[in-house]
Amino acid sequence: MEKNQKIVLANRPAAWVEESNFRLEESPIPEPGANQVLVRNRWLSLDPYMRGRMSEAKSYAKSVEIGEVMVGGTAGEVVKSNHPKFAVGDTVVGAMGWQTWAVADGAALQKVDASAVPLSAYLGVLGMPGVTAWVGLMDICAPKAGETVVVTAASGAVGSVVGQLAKIHGARAVGIAGGAEKCRYVVEELGFDACIDYKAGNLRGDLKEATPKGIDCLFENVGGEIFDTLLTRMNPFSRIAVCGLIAQYNSAPYPMQNIGAVLINRIRMQGFIVSDDLSRWPPALKELAGHVASGRIKYRESVADGLAAAPAAFISLLKGGNFGKQLVKLT
Amino acid sequence: MEKNQKIVLANRPAAWVEESNFRLEESPIPEPGANQVLVRNRWLSLDPYMRGRMSEAKSYAKSVEIGEVMVGGTAGEVVKSNHPKFAVGDTVVGAMGWQTWAVADGAALQKVDASAVPLSAYLGVLGMPGVTAWVGLMDICAPKAGETVVVTAASGAVGSVVGQLAKIHGARAVGIAGGAEKCRYVVEELGFDACIDYKAGNLRGDLKEATPKGIDCLFENVGGEIFDTLLTRMNPFSRIAVCGLIAQYNSAPYPMQNIGAVLINRIRMQGFIVSDDLSRWPPALKELAGHVASGRIKYRESVADGLAAAPAAFISLLKGGNFGKQLVKLT
């Protein structure tokens, strides 16, 4: 008899996440109750925020408890339904965690159309990462035509959308990514104006060259030394959308030297979490869906095969080993 | 024959400002040209921003050149006028620098009424520091009733107004100041709810006690280790108005450890300079003048006697030696 496979948090990481922090378990496939739906998960999304949920430290969301299934966004198919809005065979997205089967309340699921767009896109460019890019760029940075937008982790699920949206809205888009191959992709495939390979070891000089008029909007995903260096290029009245600080999720915080730029250049710096304001999702998804359908926004996926591969893929993501949106193909 | 006394920048400070960075000079009293006014300066304002003007480093305003008169806000009396808006005997404020006499274009001066309010108040609570407090608190922090506002350098020209305005608008006001005497003044005279003496050596513990519900608004004048510690008490969706970072004007930047709070708590941090938006001055001064006239906003002045005392008073200000608005009485 088929079982539900799930990955639980075995123990909390001390610094870098290790595969031993996770444990693969099996349990019976659950039965849906009233107004519930049984879903066979096809895709699991891996995202940097999950690192925070593995810690006990107070953050914006509750930690995963030891022994609990790891949290995560998923896409799958309805197998049984006790909810009037869902029928067997419907494709749905939700937050069903690192497991192959799940029961969820109908209210916690969203039906999506996987005929025109692949189902996995609803975990990336048409899901949380895409909306994150839109909210940070359009609501916080609000770049004007001709301004310079810089985004870190530019080839990733969020960063790739930020730069393409910036171009669509008439800004100069400059990416920062790790490695020549990612930078080539960012410029040649995604159409950014420039990309800096921070691993090339000349960040400060390369940055000056790529941002001759300084930076008007910084969409920050990485933090640490790169963020601190970027602060030195910010223009008067520039904006910083702080979306992620992945460089310090696994280590002591980087000691920032250049926060004085906030005063000198009257910078507005705003941290945000895409789930804070759900009213922004519909306008974001509307614009993104149009650009994806027309081919103006492109996306790329890194796919790990099978649930058992999720821990290694997640660790690689935290180290920048992914190229585009990191997914796990479950079945 | 009476001469103009002026203090010029003799050389740039290497770290801490020294009296030897300044030089007292004399020159003939200038003659006003067309549309100009000759003013005998009575009061000179000393303010932390002046430290920035002594450096060559790029900042929001032009540096003072070596040999030039130090910049500064002044209040005085019109002695000769070639401008239709000003008559001999009018009291005026302007930015006439560290000198006893000055010629200025009429358009660069503002006539003030020194009958109901002392002339010196127009350099403090009813001048740049007061408007700075109002803009940072009302426009950037925008505290709601019941929220907690923390302000550093709480007994100073800006900080004292921030806390009193916060109280008027229904917030809890917590000051941070250096020394028991300043803290006593902040609570007993100015009516703050609490004050932390950072020199007492228990900032973290005292802060927790004084902000049981965390911090919703931080008005930051100081920077450095105090700022970094305050970041750990910020609430979700809190605001930080970055007005000054005096702790690092004379030394290497403090390495900030807690910038991650901006993301975790979705903080909006905004640097500002009060001269960026002159349209905010009239509403600010209108509210402040009402509260000063009614006695709801109190202020205190530290007065140095004579222009020659200005360098030592300025150095003391940078080290927190002033108590209230630092002025120099010129004649």
Automatic annotation (TrEMBL), chains A, B:
InterPro entries: ADH-like_C (IPR013149), ADH_N_2 (IPR041694), ER (IPR020843), GroES-like_sf (IPR011032), MDR_fam (IPR045010), NAD(P)-bd_dom_sf (IPR036291)
Segments forming domain Enoyl reductase (ER): 19-328
Classification via Pfam families: ADH_N_2, ADH_zinc_N
CDD domains reported for this sequence: PGDH
Record carries keyword Oxidoreductase: yes
Highest taxon listed in the record's lineage: Bacteria
Annotated signal peptide: none
Gene Ontology MF: a single term: oxidoreductase activity, acting on the CH-CH group of donors, NAD or NADP as acceptor
Keywords: Oxidoreductase
Record protein name field: Alcohol dehydrogenase
Protein's organism: Sulfuritalea hydrogenivorans sk43H
